[in-house]
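Ligand-bound model needed. nicotinamide-adenine-dinucleotide.
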Amino acid sequence: MRIAVFSTYQYDRDFLTRHNTGHELEFFVLPLNEQTAQLTAGFDAVCIFVNDQVNAIVLNTLQQNGVRLIVLRCAGFNNVDLEAAKKLDIPVLRVPAYSPEAVAEHAMALILTLNRKTHKAYNRIREGNFSLERLMGFNLHGRKVAVIGTGNIGKALCHILKGFGCRIHAYDIYPDVELQANGVTYGSLEETLADADVVSLHCPLMESTKHLINKHTLELFKPGAMLINTSRGGLIDTIAVIDALKHGRLGYLGLDVYEQEGKLFFHDLSEDIIQDDLIMRLISFPNVLITSHQGFFTKEAMEQIATTTFNNIDAYAGQRELVNRV
Ligand code: NAD
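Prediction:
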């Protein structure tokens, strides 16, 4: 098949080229959106990532251009209008699980860095500052961690947290029996947020979970608690979180995703004037740590993404069952 691959960097091209099962790939640095949809003329399929925007307008253009298939190089599919795709009979395939440990380990890295301030120690020592002032953390052992969403990634994080001796209280619309047998307790969202020292988000972004963390739910947090989001930016109302940070209700914030990340993340903007005032305010807090959607970014996950993407394309081309259809 002839495939237009959007939002690619050198690492995407390397992994996809290495695992290609014989398709004609054309790589675009640009994201797929209303402005770039015309580039798909003459392609059979598009291969997209987290910040490509495939709404009904884009889908109509894809269909007019002869595109018959959309393959996502990620698990989340909140950026595709699935209803519109269904109406046009364009299947949307995804990579449902690629090394959930990669994202869970990154969530743990954010927790440990925010707590023990290793990023600050690194900079201090490089400047000959060996002081310990203001570097004090807390023991994770015995602390209560709220895991919101215990699917592949949330579950992997629970296993890591168990190793640290944390008490885990979870919220999921489908509690995991194996985790329960291992001592993870479940409750309502309100019960789970209350008393937690750390809250980590691992549920998908949907209409029902948009701004799950908002002015009201933040009021349930234990004062000074840590909030970690490696799932999707839209789970958090950024303005409410900034307010909670300003008033000390939130003690730490670790983000790998951000609601308006599309214009920022994955790009080198170091010489630009950044127009997004909310992210600039977030960056200014000493107790906020932001990474640029890199939770998935391990060798193992990139291999898995490339392999599953071509399995999905081959299943469609070979008219086999589309097991990863969303
Ligand atoms: P998953 O589908 O395995 O698990 C999601 C869990 O959330 C399920 O157990 C589901 O029952 C639960 N859930 C659904 N609706 C809920 C609700 N309203 N409230 C509470 N729980 C709810 O997904 P996953 O593989 O664990 O991925 C989780 C999210 O992580 C994805 O949706 C994606 O947005 C994000 N993600 C981020 C990165 C990254 O690089 N940062 C990489 C992969 C995935």
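The first strand starts at residue 2 and ends at 5.
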